[in-house]
From TrEMBL:
This is Ribonuclease J. It comes from Gordonibacter pamelaeae 7-10-1-b. Residues 20-29 have a biased composition (Gly residues). Gene3D superfamilies: 3.10.20.580, Metallo-hydrolase/oxidoreductase, Ribonuclease Z/Hydroxyacylglutathione hydrolase-like. Pfam families: Lactamase_B_2, RMMBL, RNase_J_b_CASP, RNase_J_C. Coiled coil: none annotated. Its cofactor is Ca(2+); Zn(2+). GO terms for biological process: rRNA processing.
Length: 633
């Protein structure tokens, strides 16, 4: 996969001389594909190799077929250290919740963005579709931006990319592995973003971005193609692990690269940033292979159809489901928009292996006996519009659940989703389904390292300073204690908030300036226009109801003309004629009193609102949202 770089003429000439070729439109990939059509083909900007990725040895790049080495895997000389240089590390997201991960690295006029994720809303965000980090700082310094590095394909690391791309006024190269770029391309297609500059990397690759050199190394996670990054700059070196676990029996054979970690330790890690999600778990995270054993057992014993809900991006889990289904003589059905899309991408990229004859469209289920079917679907988080929720409510177009069917929820509820998941489980139980979740059997394991794994990586890397990332406040603090326990001085452990930067120089690491940060709400077609005040109003509407007052007034006569109209919605007793008549009379008297005092529109509206709310509190103990409309006649 060739790399196109139009950042600056100097870097362009360096890249072209190093690569011996230019252009990032996929033509080179097509040429390679023609030379060996059975093994590769082109897919827009991504070169597809239909084989599982191979682990690099000690972080070193491997040879391409035919003996030609990937140019990006050339060992660049480390940036020359500058005692006057300062590297700024600015987290814009990911330090207050599990989601919206985004970190800025800035040194000597060059800037790199590491991940660009989003977070999904909870019950406190009615009507909100997505939550993005506030990336105003990136836009204000867009002329410095040399590239965007995506560590893996999960939404909490990629979801903000389409919105960021629309706000940037020029193409910025996006670096990721084959699977990651495949998912990003699907996301860009939904947003109608064309001609994005996507550049494939592999573990062991190095890329030069301005004064930075970024080297990628393999990590094991719950999605294929996950990597960590070792950043070298004139001011010092930073290691970002990305999301990882130390699964020694992984489904695809890719383990976290201990050799690379040891090599970086020898080079010198001035600051380490590491995944904190499971820092409170005192044990090792179990292997994904253990889930496969349990799924195989449950499927073999199931009498009717088997429905399995999991994350649509968990390709390793999907592979094990497919293998277990085929071993038990069952066809695989995929339903749910994101599950269908990701299955298609993973199969085309060679990460999900299942013959065409063993995978069936949901619309072709008719005629296949229930005991010969396994259904993979979305809805492991209880989302009301997901495939599993629609199946549980009897609203799915093609799948009807019957008594005796088996349902497996192969995921752990994200904090805040527990009630929604329980609601779906109860609906399934009422139908008579046999429901398995993590409490009943090992049908899910985390993709994040536990405390013992985190300590092991810290011991290998031996960083001079440490910054926990990717987690809520309790996770970050637990990880900070692990760092201290493995020998990082307490004064060199930095727990930051979003927007609070660190500065790395020859003198060490210290706290830097704070930049604008926060969250941006995506509400339908609106991005950033929905404020917290709007959410507060929505919450009030949802919890207390709504009341409206309409009246005609005459300031000259100082009187109310005609009858006052009062409507109440979502208010206990709001349809009671007696309460409505009392509300009309109370508001009318309040308006008359205020008119007698010579009050203006502002005072009149306040008087009417206060009178109505006082009455409703006295009668119903509710304080709804109240709107007053006055017409001057």
């Amino acid at each position: 996969m060739e790399q196109q770089n139009n950042q600056r003429s100097e870097r362009r000439s360096q890249e072209q001389s190093r690569n011996g070729r230019g252009g990032g439109n996929g033509n080179g990939a097509k040429g390679a594909a023609r030379g060996d059509e059975k093994k590769t083909r082109s897919y827009k900007h991504v070169q597809l190799e239909h084989r599982r990725p191979q682990l690099s040895k000690a972080g070193q790049g491997q040879q391409r077929q035919g003996g030609q080495q990937n140019a990006r895997r050339a060992n660049f000389s480390s940036p020359k250290k500058d005692p006057n240089a300062t590297l700024k590390i600015i987290p814009l997201g990911g330090l207050d919740a599990i989601g919206k991960n985004m970190t800025v690295f800035e040194c000597k006029g060059d800037m790199i963005l590491d991940d660009a994720g989003l977070m999904f809303p909870d019950d406190d965000h009615p009507g909100i579709d997505l939550i993005l980090p506030d990336y105003t700082y990136v836009l204000e310094n867009a002329d410095k931006l040399r590239g965007i590095i995506i560590t893996h394909g999960h939404e909490d690391h990629t979801g903000t990319l389409p919105y960021l791309m629309k706000d940037l006024d020029r193409q910025i190269p996006i670096y990721g592995t084959k699977m990651t770029l495949g998912l990003i391309e699907g996301k860009f297609a939904e947003h109608k973003i064309k001609n994005a500059k996507l550049i494939e990397i592999k573990p062991g690759d190095q890329v030069k971005l301005g004064c930075f050199t970024a080297e990628f190394f393999a990590v094991n996670h719950s999605i294929p193609g996950a990597v960590g990054v070792f950043f070298q700059s004139p001011a010092g070196n930073v290691l970002h692990t990305g999301d990882f676990k130390l699964d020694q029996t992984p489904i695809d054979g890719v383990t976290t690269d201990f050799g690379a970690l040891a090599k970086f330790s020898k080079t010198g890690v001035d600051l380490m940033m590491s995944d904190s999600t499971n820092a409170q778990n005192p044990n090792f995270t179990p292997s994904e292979a253990e889930v496969g054993k349990e799924l195989r057992k449950i499927i073999s014993q199931a009498r009717g159809r088997v429905i399995i809900a999991s994350f649509a991006s968990h390709i390793h889990r999907m592979q094990q489901i497919c293998d277990a289904a085929r071993d038990n003589g069952r066809k695989v059905v995929v339903t749910g928009r994101s599950m269908i899309q990701n299955t298609d991408i993973a199969r085309r990229l060679g990460y999900l292996n299942i013959p065409d004859e063993d995978i069936v469209d949901a619309y072709d289920l008719k005629g296949i006996p229930p005991e010969q079917v396994v259904i993979m679907c979305t809805g492991s988080q209880g989302e009301p519009l997901s495939a599993l929720a629609r199946i549980a409510n009897g609203e799915h177009k093609t799948i009807d659940l019957e008594q005796g069917d088996t349902v497996i929820i192969s995921a752990t509820p994200v904090p805040g989703n527990e009630k929604a998941v329980t609601r779906v489980i109860n609906s399934l139980a009422k139908i008579g389904a046999d429901v398995y979740d993590k409490k009943r059997a090992m049908v899910h394991v985390s993709g994040h390292a536990g405390a013992e794994e985190l300590k092991l990586v810290l011991s290998i890397v031996q960083p001079n300073a440490f910054m926990p990332v990717h987690g809520e406040a309790t996770h970050l603090r637990a990880h900070a204690k692990l760092a201290e326990a493995t020998g990082v001085p307490a004064e060199n452990v930095f727990i930051c908030e979003n927007g609070e930067g660190l500065e790395l120089s020859s003198r060490g690491v210290k706290r830097g300036e704070t930049v604008q940060s926060g969250i941006v709400f995506v509400d339908g077609l609106s991005v950033g226009d929905t404020s917290q005040d709007v959410l507060d109003e929505r919450n009030a509407l949802g919890s207390q109801g709504f009341a409206s007052v309409a009246a005609a007034i005459s300031s000259k006569r100082k009187d109310v003309v005609g009858e006052v109209q009062v409507e109440m919605h979502g208010i206990t007793g709001g349809d009671d004629d007696y309460l409505v008549r009392e509300a009309r009379s109370t508001v009318k008297n309040a308006l008359k009193r205020q008119l007698g005092k010579g009050g203006g529109q502002k005072e009149l509206k306040k008087a009417a609102r206060d009178a109505l709310l006082s009455l409703l509190w006295e009668r119903t103990k509710q304080r709804p949202m109240a709107i007053v409309n006055l017409l001057e006649v």
